[in-house]
Design goal:
The chain is α/β, with parallel strands linked by helices. The protein is built from 13 helices and twelve strands. The protein has a domain of about 240 residues: 3-Layer(aba) Sandwich (Rossmann fold), CATH 3.40.50.720. The strands form three sheets. It has a seven-stranded parallel β-sheet with strand order 3-2-1-4-5-6-10, with helices on both faces. A three-stranded mixed β-sheet has the order 7-9-11. α2 runs parallel beside α4 and α9 packs across α11. The model has no long low-confidence stretch (mean pLDDT about 95).
């Protein structure tokens, strides 16, 4: 059995679904169920005996210690995090509490649990920490992509909090010997993505006949990774990664935000044409950029391929088509997550940029 934290969120839920689909090993799924955590993501596992969901906070030491004691997992995979840069600008304290304090308390509970193990249970235990490429800062157009040796230069409260959590994980390996692994991924996209992020936001707004807000000139470049490729990479690192090592996970798909929006619009033109036969790209509007917006992220994932033989299965063309089709096929899920609090957030974040 493994313990997955943050397993009702976008990436965590996809990981849990894929894990149970490809393994006969159970999952204890601990999630706080904040705005982005959604049990509907896990609806297909409702009666599955391999999935045990617990609502709770990684910062609740007593709860985590009890779960470890009762279930004796062989690994912890930590997805739990506040993860939206825009929200971190408005409410940075939430990110400090979850990403730094929460990770610290989870590490402490894991260290106590691991220290009490013996034999192969101790030697085979793993703590895998899922992080982001944003800890590395921003690249110019022609700089080489981030490797695992790139200096940390976080530029937002979100990325700074994740950088701090990465350092804590590293320190617990070097100081206490805790068998840790860290992954730093590029921008994920795919099913169950909460519609505050670029791709699902564009799909939602396009279908609703709303404007498609693009920050600044839209030339911010990101590497895009299909979420199920990310999940397969994490499974591989958990299986065979070298202890204490960091592995960058990327999709080898550098795209400007505006190009992403235009691609989504073109797919919607094909798959769900507007009633008036006009193109969705006519809904694009440019809004004021967010403070401190990093210009470019790019992941060099050659270490992961070289050491563990992993590379993404999806190209951007195949992954984005699957993603758009999933949202078109799952309007019920989408309508249920578009709550009053989500609408208030979107209005607050974008009204000030018009």
């Amino acid at each position: 059995m493994i313990l997955v934290t943050g397993g009702a969120g976008f990436i965590g839920a996809n990981f849990v679904l894929d894990w149970i689909d490809t393994n006969n090993e159970g999952v204890i799924n601990l999630d706080k169920l904040t705005y982005a955590g959604n049990l509907e993501n896990l609806a297909s596992l409702k009666d599955n005996k391999l999935h045990h969901f617990v609502q709770g906070d990684i910062g609740d030491s007593a709860l985590v210690e009890r779960l470890l004691s009762e279930h004796q997992p062989r690994a912890i995979v930590n997805f739990a995090a506040e993860s939206h840069v825009d929200r971190s600008i408005h409410s940075p304290e939430d990110f400090i509490q979850t990403n730094i304090v929460g990770t610290f308390r989870l590490l402490e509970a894991a260290r106590t649990y691991w220290s009490g193990l013996t034999g192969t249970k101790k030697t085979e235990f793993r703590f895998l920490h899922v992080s982001t490429d944003e800890v590395y800062g921003s690249l110019t157009k022609n700089e080489p992509a981030f490797t695992e040796l790139h200096r940390y230069e976080p530029n937002s409260p979100y990325s700074a909090s994740k950088a701090a959590s990465d350092h804590l994980v590293r320190s617990y390996h070097h100081t206490y010997g805790l068998p840790v692994l860290t992954t730093n991924c590029s921008n994920n996209y795919g099913p169950y993505h909460f519609p505050e992020k670029l791709i699902p936001l564009m799909i939602v707004n396009a279908l609703a006949g709303k404007l498609l807000p693009v920050y600044g000139d839209g030339q911010q470049i990101r590497d895009w990774l299909y979420v199920k490729d990310h999940c397969s990479a994490i499974r591989r690192v958990l299986e065979a990664g070298r202890l204490g090592e960091v592995y960058n996970i990327g999709g080898w798909n550098e795209k400007a935000n505006l190009d992403i929006v235009n691609t989504v619009c073109a797919l919607l033109d094909e798959l769900r044409p507007r009633p008036d036969k006009k193109h969705y790209k006519e809904q694009i509007t440019y809004v004021a950029d967010r403070p401190g917006h990093d210009r470019r992220y790019a992941i060099d994932a050659r270490k992961l391929e070289r050491e563990l033989g992993w590379k993404p299965a999806e190209t951007f063309d195949t992954g984005i088509r699957k993603t758009v089709q999933w949202y078109l096929d799952n309007q019920g899920w989408l309508n249920n997550v578009l709550s009053g609090s989500y609408k208030q957030w979107v209005e607050k974040n974008y009204a000030e940029r018009n």
